[in-house]
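My current task is to audit a protein record that another person submitted. My question to you is simply how this chain folds and whether the tokens agree. This is what I was given:
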Amino acid sequence: MWRKLKATPVGPARSPLGSGEKLLGSATGAADKLVSRWGIEGITTFQAGFPIRLASAPNRSGSFGSGSRPNSTGQSARTAGPAQSRLGKWFDTSVFSPPASFTFGNVSRTLPDMRAHGTNNYDFAVFKNTEPSESATLQFRAEFFNLFNRVQFGFPGQVLGPAQFGVVSSQVNDPRLIQLVLRLNWQGSDSAAFDEWRTRASRAGGQRFRPRFSRADQS
């Protein structure tokens, strides 16, 4: 089923602050460590909802391998207004009626002008890189999924017969999620020291200490 999609990635974009940058380029020492090497990245997704496929219950077609669809008056079932105001009636159910016995109904496979709720989502991250030594980079990240906490509603009831026909009663996305990450990237000739430090840290913290590590391949 065809679905419109637009996704716009952002970044990673570095902050123009700190040593070697346009602003505060002469900063040194603790001030440089504080303002330098910040960055942002993210992705924005706008996506139309899936087409709506209707059926009717019980199956009046008398067939054994397929179901039946409602009959339509030929008028559009599209309704206007914000999604929150249409949850109890996502489309105009009055334009549909049960098909006659031993018929399949005249509604098309999908409604031509109605779709389920679409996606309007923003994911965002801010990060800072610090170099405690020549062979190590420590990165702090704050990641925000569904930054503006926007809801994506599920499909309306698509079966004519039950009381849920045309009613939206579910949510398909997650609420805002915030994740804080501290990551140590280690490279160079000190891999043995890194392994020893990681082992000692894991033993000291037990199950409560679960750092995220990555080590570049040896050149």
About this structure: The two ends are 48 Å apart (CA to CA).
